[in-house]
Amino acid sequence: MTAPLHEPTAEAAPSAAEEAAAAAVGEKAVQGRSLGRIAWERLKRDKLALTGGVVVLALIALALLAPVITNLLGQDPDAYHEGLIDPLFGTPKGSLGGISGDHLLGVEPVNGRDIFARILYGAQVSLLVGFLSAMVAVVLGTVLGILAGFFGGWVDSLISRVMDGLLAFPQLLFTIALVSVMPNDMLGLTGSSVRVFVMILVIGFFGWPYIGRVVRGQTLSLREREYVEAARSLGAGRFYILFKELLPNLVAPIVVYTTMMIPTNILTEAALSFLGVGVKPPTASWGQMLSSAIDYYESDPMYMVVPGVAIFVTVLAFNLFGDGVRDALDPKGSR
């Protein structure tokens, strides 16, 4: 037999560098991402939501630093500057409501108080009521909603009827009546602090049925899932299933609804202050400033524009951020 013309050659073994590169590519390909990371990556792609989030953070920073900022500018929100007011018409001297280097947003008619300083202190009231009343509503709504959805039966019927009753109750009228008869001193609080405390409790109490319904509906769906049945079969107790199995899966809808609830609470506080049952003068409030500006909207329109724009920007920023959070936490979303 004759030898083959070409001997079969052995295949070259991969080098150590090639093996390391292939391993790195494999690890990168199978690298997992947590739900939080996926949500953050989606949120980063939403420019409107990020803009809203930045504005919200800026508003919170301005509210917290209001005393520092006003001291640096040399302005007191309660100090009168009657020399800046036209004695004949009671309106600020100069154009655009008395805007100048000393008074960045002008001064109020009649008394000449600095509007910029009062806007900053008014942000404290609006954001405090908005956040704390949302916390009250979230705690009550989450606890009662998850109990109604998990236990069902008479527990579900009782809590659901309470939610229906509160949703049909005239919240605004009740708040006006309650705040109007509240004493000036209560639980160590005085003046406007009493009204802020009452508004937080009332707005939060009447707000929990909305989030309670959302949590109840989600719980009714989750309690039939396989991992809940597996926990039951392994002997897990009811409270273990509630707090270890169901509650972590309710975080996303709770966070989304909270971001939507805060601007609504801010608007409610502004409406109550506009009607005269919010914080007491001289405490600054955006709604109170709008109420005072009604008498001067023709002679000094800037006095109405500034607090109106502050409310509009705040509510818009929260809504844009809330929409972005909702889309980011939606597992079926493609954004």
Describe the structure.
The structure is a single chain. Helices cover 66% and strands 1% of the residues. The protein is built from 13 helices and 2 strands. By secondary structure, the protein is mainly α. Strand 1 and strand 2 (189-190) form a beta hairpin. Residues 5-11 have low confidence and may be disordered. Strands 1-2 form a two-stranded antiparallel sheet.
Could you name the key traits of this structure?
single chain; mainly alpha
Share in β-strands: under 5%
Radius of gyration: 29 Å
C-alpha termini separation: 70 Å
Q: Report the order of strands and helices.
A: HHHHHHHEEHHHHHH
Give the fraction of residues assigned to helices: 55-70%
The helix-and-strand class reads mainly alpha
pLDDT averaged over residues = 83
Largest sheet: 2 strands, antiparallel
Question: How many H/I helical runs?
Answer: 13
Topology:
Elements: H1 16-29, H2 35-45, H3 47-64, H4 66-73, H5 115-151, H6 153-168, H7 171-180, E1 185-186, E2 189-190, H8 192-222, H9 226-233, H10 238-246, H11 251-274, H12 286-293, H13 302-329
Antiparallel strand pairs: 1-2
Helix pairs in contact: 2-13, 3-5, 3-13, 4-5, 5-6, 5-8, 5-11, 6-8, 7-8, 8-11, 9-10, 11-12, 11-13, 12-13
